[in-house]
Amino acid sequence: MSRTCRPHPTTPEWTVRQVIHRSDWKDTTKVCPTCEESIYLMHGHCQVELDRERTPPPGSKLTRERRLLAFCDEECATLWLDAD
Fold first, then answer.
1. Domain range holding 67?
2. Could you tell me the superkingdom of the organism this chain comes from (predicted)?
3. Which of 9, 46, 63, 70 is the right S-S partner for 30, CB 3.0 to 4.6 Å?
4. pLDDT score of 43
5. Average pLDDT by consecutive 10-residue portion of the chain (84 residues)?
6. Number of structural domains in the chain
């Protein structure tokens, strides 16, 4: 699954940069934003990368902010991405 550079309908300030399948990422769990199932990140799951511009604090050159969301599978990621 690959979707890039489009705003998400419920969070227009965030842009979807990529959607990828991940495993062996981190020895922790997250909750799927769509179905609320627990996801063990060492197993296969979908990751959505969001990006937005930000005003950097004084002395910082960082003008972008990134957020990673974990979904239990491609179906849940697609449902979230297509939400209105």
1. 6-81
2. Archaea
3. 70
4. 94
5. 50 83 88 94 93 86 88 92 76
6. 1
Structural domain contains residue 76: yes
Length of the chain counted residue by residue: 84
With a CB cutoff of 8 Å and minimum separation 6, the contacts of 27 are 41, 42
* CA-to-CA dists, residue 76 to 9, 49, 52, angstroms: 16, 15, 22
1 domain residue, yes or no: no
Distance (Å, whole) CA 82 – CA 79: 5
Q: List, in order, residues 6 or more apart from 57 with CB less than 8 Å away.
A: none
